Each structure stands twice: as C-alpha cells, then as structure tokens.
Amino acid sequence: MSKAFEELQIKDDFMFSVIMRNPKFCKPFLERVLGMKISHIEYPGSQETIDLSAEAKSVRLDIYVEDEEEAVYNIEMQATTNRNLPKRTRYYQGMIDLNILEKGKDYKDLKKSFVIFVCVFDLFGEGRHIYTFENRCIQNPDLGLGDDTAKIILNTKGTMDDVTPELKRLLDFIDGKAPEDEFTRKLDEAVQSARKNEKWRLDYMTLQMHYQEKYEQGIEQGIEQEKRQSVMRMIEDGDLPLEKIALYSGLTLEQVSELEKEFQPA
Asked: What are 163-182's pLDDT values in tens digits?
C-alpha cells in the first residue's frame, strides 16, 4: 500500500515539494547547497501548485524557482535507485531550456540553470555528499564550455568530510536523523504541520488515486501482454518508483527491474 499521509517524511517527494514551495525553506536550502547567499527567489505561476496530471508525458518539476540574478533552480527528491538519473538530469535540463525559449526568448537569453537531485542513496558510490557536474573540455579540464548549466547530485548517505557542517546537518535530517540546528528544527516543525493540512492530504490522496487508476485502466482485461505494456508505460513516465510499480502490477520487483532494462526511451 502507499505510505499514509501522516507518515510522510521530508525525503518523500510529495512532502518535499510541499515544504520547498515555501521560500523561507527553499531559499536557505539552496544557500546551503550552493554555498552562497541568495537575496530573493520567486516561483513562476505555472509551478505554484502540485501537478496532479497522471497522463501527460511532459516532465513534472517538483520545485522550480528563479532568483534575482535570473538563474533558475530545479530541485528533485529521489528516494529510489534504478531510475536512470543521469539521463533524467539531461532531460530536465532540456525541458527547462525549451520552456524559456518557448516564451519567445533568444538562445542568448537562456538563464543560468541548476538541476539539483537530492538522493537518499549514493548514486556513484564514492562516499561524497555532493557531486557537481559542468560541461568541460576533455582535453583540457580547466576549460569550461561556459553554457551556464550545472547538475548537482546530493547524497544523504555520504561519508566524506566534503561539505559544510550546515549542509551535512541538512542532509542528515533528510536521511531521517533528528534535527541538529535551527533550520532543520524548523523543517521538522513544517513537516509536522503539513501532516495536519487537510488540503494537502486530499491532494496526496488524489495523486495516489490517479496513479492507481492509471495502472488499473491498463490491466482491467487481465491480459498478460496488456499488463506488461502498462508496466512499461509507468516505467516510461518515470512518476513511480519500481517498488510501487511492482505493488500495483502484481509482478515481483525483479520482473519489473527486467522490464526496465528492456525499456529504451524514444
């Protein structure tokens, strides 16, 4: 079964989205990750509410904000592995750029952008708390491309002494440890408060119903081929962790993992 709303933690993507839609939490979060002060952030109107559409192929950005320097930040919570995350960062980056260009701007007006994935696992296995990627020349690593893009993978399971104490305490809190400073205590209070919000509870329940209906529509005839196709569609959409797809489909996690290996995005 899906996790009950009262049990959601900040590492659950729905709760993370709810909390980070408040600038008093999102701004200091970004400041700790980037190691710099940000005087102001704002949320574009189209991103103010949680997208409940379960049919669209278009990407749903968990958190999308802009700052006073016209940089944009996309923050995503990732609680499960085997989601082809490096390619997902590339896809999200492309969607952000297309969204800017569709507003009539020239490519020269593309804003500096950061795609930030918060992972509760070590994607690369090096023990780092933070992995930052920029486009650089292979022949001369000191030569940057200068395309103003960065992809940051945070790891709550890091073991190195490679980040500030403030960021370490934040990552520890996301990983499930008790809050250890004022900011993480405020985050903890916000989570407790959010669990009592009836509107967000309804939004969460509605989202879970959409996911369930999406699967049931694909397998209602009980045909194995249709079941396989339905699972492949859920893998393609990328909205659900493999564990939840296995739960909805009745397949084992190993079977779903095998289908994921067969799936090749168009």
From this structure: 999 999 999 999 999 999 99
Per DSSP, helices labelled H in 142-249 are 165-174, 182-194, 198-219, 224-237, 242-249
Tell me the Cα Rg of the chain: 19
pLDDT surpassing 80 at residue 82: no
Say if residues 79 and 11 touch (Cβ distance below 8 Å).
yes
Q: What is the pTM of this model?
A: 0.73
The amino acid sitting at 72 is V
Q: Which of 98, 18, 14 is nearest to 58 (CA)?
A: 98
Q: What is the pLDDT of residues 118-130, one digit of tens each?
A: 999 999 999 999 9
Q: What is the DSSP string of 48-102?
A: SS----SS--S---SEEEEETTS-EEEEEEE--S-S-HHHHHHHHHHHHHHHHHT
Average pLDDT of every residue of the chain:
82
Strand 130-133 and strand 149-155: the pairing is antiparallel
Task: Read off the tokens for 194.
Answer: 């959010």
